[in-house]
Amino acid sequence: MTETTNQLPMGNDEGSGGPATYKSPHAYWEPLWAQGRRYRQLDDAETRLLAEHLGPGRGRPALDIGSGDGTLARHLHHGLGYRTTGIDCSPSAIALAAAQDTGPGPRPAWRSMDITADDPGSLPDAAYAVITCRLVYRWIADQPAFVDRVRHLLAPGGTFWAVTEIAGRREDTSPLQDLGITAAQAETLTAGWSVVRTADLDVLRCYALRP
Known about the structure:
Layout: H1 25-34, H2 44-54, E1 61-65, H3 71-79, E2 83-88, H4 91-100, E3 109-112, E4 128-134, H5 143-153, E5 154-165, H6 183-190, E6 195-201, E7 204-210
Parallel strand pairs: 1-2, 1-4, 2-3, 4-5
Antiparallel strand pairs: 5-7, 6-7
């Protein structure tokens, strides 16, 4: 798997234009999506891991946090058979996801929503068999609160699937070297789960977490 330099915003959260320097995630991400920024797509290796760790949906509810253009949410819905809701704080991303979802049959639900600030009671389901978070965790300002919110939204026996870059996997000269999470951030993500499974894909690590 490869990643080009225009797939993720550059800089880190500490004073170089990352989300933490903005009043809200919407203020940071909406201009990027509106201007045509696009991000790393799913490939065969990642979809195989999804099938292995999440299994068939059988109509159970799934929530994709930070769904962007909807690639992962559509795969959960049409490919694995979950009844999927995709949420993103950027209305432009949600509009793009809805426009690209032209497959037959029922389609995912799309919501413009900031999971860190908005009322989760507005979601269509009270609990989810699967919650996914792909290339999003790194940018969450209050990561412990975010993980706690995910736990409350996850149904008993459910799976939290998080995909994030890991620090130290790029060359020191790479303009994207700050995109990986630290060991401390990884500990925040994985602490307190009864099952923690991981799989590595080049600079990324995929986590399957269960209560």
